[in-house]
């Protein structure tokens, strides 16, 4: 039986190799096809130099939208829309782009962060002899290599492990992965390889060991998706395109041509920041709005058939100890047939994704069922020694995939595997479907159709293959050392700036404020756990960030990494933005409320709390008795609840002062601002007292929020017991409130022990 299975696998591997080799010979290299159509394989020479032209301000971009007439107006600032803008301007066309929210605010910032060809698509292509699937994989592998080349500071190769728990699957998976390498050809990142059980555990110690036979490692790319998207838009802007975020398309405008037919002539738009409306004139309008494709098509023709079939994909973020720093994991066959990736990203661990039909919305949110599904799959692959806890979920988000049916075919219900480009009778060019990795080739195909159908005066063909993106021109892996040496930045911060902004990191560093410390000299962190600094907020405004959400979600990625940290950093971020954008007090409050709503509803904070509140209080009698004592240690007045004042009393000055060296300049600057006795002088005790008050205010409210379920500003006993039950079950981890209560209980017990230790004859009660 086993021998028969081996013979089948061997024959299958040979057949797979033959099929792929034949397909490679038949279809040849993609560059040949491009040359046939007169398209440039590499960027035009004059586009290769680093653009030194400063970015126009947002107000200048809006004025241009009012005054100019464009060859192309693109609706949508995601990866595909930004890619279309860059492709259009690279052809010498006068180009404009408008985005309702922020660049990459939709699906493009909520991906799995992979640049990949699609291993499972290749499997289908070979077994089903599906040429379309094969072409899609080959195209994606070319685009993967291109992105690694044009944005090396934002993208990098990532090894991904496929653990195997049945011995006969090793040759099966190995042959499939080797076909993946073969199809990539010269664009293969690194060759895949097989690992023994021992070596697999050495490289991925968290892996479940029982029944493990070995593993296969292959390579794909990984990137910072939102920053990549913004870099594409900024590159287009540097080359002369007009790009504007927070601009809504209200309607499409039309004129009659020489034959009396209505043709699209532009769009009426509204600035969502000021409310001002005007018309943008354009010879061609491209609809690149992802899940919102149909809403724009309905502006063109009300009775149009819907082509978008939205599907939600949820991801979660876990602490870094869930995965090695440089090795991902692929679960090729989950309990319901889906694929789950488990990847290191930005110093933490990202896991996903799900695939659930959904409604189109601007504010998708993760569900508890999807989060539990992902956690369940993770548990099946990790060692039983590792407790996969619900409370370890730092962030969770949902992105909407715009699966589409082809309007060019009579059967509108048949979903296409790749993407579609459609031109309506009035000239609206729609690009829909596809995936992140192939944004550039999709944009190229879209502009090819636009140039042909709308008779646009293109100077050349597409010049985006090999065209370096914002920050890539002068970047090297060791560039961060210069940032440390020239500016006095922390190494971790310098690496982050280098790997986010590329050679533009020097412009960011110039905006960094002095810390007042011996080291680092500049760069005040926005949150102590992350390398984001004050200068990035100021630079984000120069890169068209208009709201606090723009910064915490797309410019810094903090909301995607840790919702609690994002909320804690908000006051500092909003304060800096208020300086840059001249916000009033009311506007600052509004921005804070909107940002808090975003992290709670769209980044998983709310569903995290709801999952905790549903946990039954399954504590033993002894545990409840102990926790009541802990509660009473804070509730010294026996009120039946714990208030802010109780927390203030429980906190010690040593807990409130930051544990770092304070420079003389910092002390004198603070002393000059503090005079509690109003006597024209300030001593150190007053300074420490004020420092304790200012730090503890935010800290105390954060601690209270951890457990205040009904949001009444108080913590009742039932809420406290609920928290203890959640900690016991793993739904809550690292609770500062519980740590505070433990300290209070310990202090109370020590005080009681001291009282009992005093002899009666020395207590004043003897004869």
TrEMBL record:
Its main location: mitochondrion. Residues 744-759 have a biased composition (Basic and acidic residues). The keyword Flavoprotein applies. Its EC number is 1.1.5.3. InterPro entries: DAO_C (IPR031656), DAO_C_sf (IPR038299), EF-hand-dom_pair (IPR011992), EF_Hand_1_Ca_BS (IPR018247), EF_hand_dom (IPR002048), FAD-dep_OxRdtase (IPR006076), FAD/NAD-bd_sf (IPR036188), G3P_DH_FAD-dep (IPR000447). Residues 743-767 are annotated as: Disordered. GO terms for biological process: glycerol-3-phosphate metabolic process. The keyword tRNA processing does not apply. Residues 622-657, 695-730 form the EF-hand domain. Pathway: Polyol metabolism; glycerol degradation. It is an enzyme of class 1 (oxidoreductase). It catalyses: a quinone + sn-glycerol 3-phosphate = dihydroxyacetone phosphate + a quinol. SUPFAM superfamilies: EF-hand (SSF47473), FAD-linked reductases, C-terminal domain (SSF54373), FAD/NAD(P)-binding domain (SSF51905). Its cofactor is FAD. Gene3D superfamilies: Alpha-glycerophosphate oxidase, cap domain, D-Amino Acid Oxidase, subunit A, domain 2, EF-hand, FAD/NAD(P)-binding domain. One of its GO terms (molecular function) is glycerol-3-phosphate dehydrogenase (quinone) activity. It is found in: Mitochondrion. Keywords: Calcium, FAD, Flavoprotein, Metal-binding, Mitochondrion, Oxidoreductase, Repeat, Transit peptide. It comes from the Eukaryota. GO terms for cellular component: mitochondrion. Signal peptide: none annotated. Belongs to the FAD-dependent glycerol-3-phosphate dehydrogenase family. This is Glycerol-3-phosphate dehydrogenase. It comes from Daphnia galeata.
């Amino acid at each position: 039986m086993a021998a028969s299975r081996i013979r089948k696998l061997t024959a299958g591997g040979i057949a797979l190799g033959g099929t792929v080799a034949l397909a490679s010979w038949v279809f040849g290299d993609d560059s040949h096809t491009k040359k046939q159509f007169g398209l440039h394989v590499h960027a035009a020479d004059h586009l290769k130099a680093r653009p030194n032209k400063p970015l126009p301000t947002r107000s200048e971009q809006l004025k241009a939208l009012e005054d100019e007439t464009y060859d192309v107006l693109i609706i949508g600032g995601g990866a595909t829309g930004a890619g279309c803008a860059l492709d259009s301007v690279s052809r010498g066309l006068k180009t404009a782009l408008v985005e309702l929210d922020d660049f990459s605010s939709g699906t493009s910032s909520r991906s799995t962060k992979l640049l990949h060809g699609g291993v499972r698509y290749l499997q289908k292509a070979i077994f089903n002899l599906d040429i379309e699937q094969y072409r899609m994989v080959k195209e994606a592998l070319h685009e993967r290599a291109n992105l690694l080349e044009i944005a090396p500071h934002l993208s990098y190769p990532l090894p991904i492990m496929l653990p195997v728990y049945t011995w006969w699957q090793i040759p099966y998976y190995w042959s499939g992965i080797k076909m993946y390498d073969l199809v990539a050809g010269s664009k293969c990142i690194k060759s895949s390889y097989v690992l023994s059980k021992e070596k697999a555990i050495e490289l991925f110690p968290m892996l479940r060991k029982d029944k493990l036979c070995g593993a296969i490692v292959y390579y794909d790319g990984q990137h910072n998706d939102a920053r990549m998207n913004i870099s594409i838009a900024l590159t287009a802007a540097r080359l002369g395109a007009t790009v504007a975020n927070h601009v809504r398309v209200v309607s499409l405008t039309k004129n009659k041509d020489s034959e009396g037919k209505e043709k699209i002539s532009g769009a009426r738009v509204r600035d969502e920041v000021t409310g001002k409306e005007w018309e943008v004139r354009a010879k061609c309008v491209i609809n690149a709005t992802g899940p919102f494709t149909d809403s724009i098509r309905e502006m063109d023709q009300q009775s149009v058939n819907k082509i978008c079939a939205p599907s939600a994909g949820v991801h979660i973020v876990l602490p870094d100890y869930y995965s090695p720093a440089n090795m991902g994991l692929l679960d090729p066959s989950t309990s319901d047939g889906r694929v789950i990736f488990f990847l290191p990203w930005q110093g933490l661990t990202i896991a996903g994704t799900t695939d659930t039909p959904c409604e189109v919305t601007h504010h998708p949110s993760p569900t508890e069922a999807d989060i539990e599904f992902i956690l369940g799959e993770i548990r099946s692959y990790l060692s039983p020694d590792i407790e996969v806890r619900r409370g370890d979920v730092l962030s969770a988000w949902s992105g909407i995939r715009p699966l589409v049916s082809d309007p060019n075919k009579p059967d509108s219900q048949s979903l296409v595997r790749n993407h579609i480009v459609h031109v309506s009778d009035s000239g609206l060019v729609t690009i829909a479907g596809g995936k992140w990795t192939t944004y550039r080739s999709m944009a190229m195909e879209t502009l090819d159709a636009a140039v042909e159908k709308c008779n646009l005066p293109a100077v050349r063909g597409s010049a985006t293959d090999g065209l370096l993106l914002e920050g890539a021109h002068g970047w090297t892996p060791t560039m961060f050392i210069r940032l440390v040496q020239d500016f006095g930045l922390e190494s971790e911060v310098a690496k982050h700036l280098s790997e986010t902004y590329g050679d533009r990191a020097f412009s960011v560093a110039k905006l960094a404020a002095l810390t007042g410390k011996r080291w680092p000299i500049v760069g005040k962190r926005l949150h102590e756990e992350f390398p984001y600094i004050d200068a990035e907020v100021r630079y984000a405004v120069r890169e068209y960030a208009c709201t606090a959400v723009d910064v915490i979600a797309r410019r810094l990625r903090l909301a995607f990494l840790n919702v609690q940290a994002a909320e804690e950093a908000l006051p500092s971020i909003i304060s800096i933005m208020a300086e840059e954008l001249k916000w009033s007090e009311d506007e600052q409050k509004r921005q804070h409320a909107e940002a808090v709503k975003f992290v709670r509803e769209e980044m998983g904070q709310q569903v995290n709390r709801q999952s905790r509140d549903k946990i039954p209080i399954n504590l033993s009698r002894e545990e409840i008795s102990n926790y009541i004592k802990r509660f009473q240690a804070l509730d010294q007045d026996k009120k039946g609840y714990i208030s802010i004042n109780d927390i203030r009393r429980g906190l010690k000055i040593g807990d409130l002062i930051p544990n770092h060296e304070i420079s003389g300049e910092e002390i004198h600057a603070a002393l000059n601002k503090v005079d509690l006795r109003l006597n024209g002088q300030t001593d150190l005790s007053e300074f420490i007292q004020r420092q304790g008050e200012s730090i503890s205010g935010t800290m105390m409210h954060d601690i209270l929020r951890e457990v205040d379920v009904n949001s009444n500003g108080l913590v009742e006993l039932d809420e406290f017991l609920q928290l203890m039950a959640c900690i016991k079950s793993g739904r809550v981890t690292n609770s500062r409130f519980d740590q505070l209560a433990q300290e209070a209980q310990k202090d109370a017990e020590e005080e009681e022990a001291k009282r009992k230790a005093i002899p009666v004859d020395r207590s004043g009660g003897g004869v």
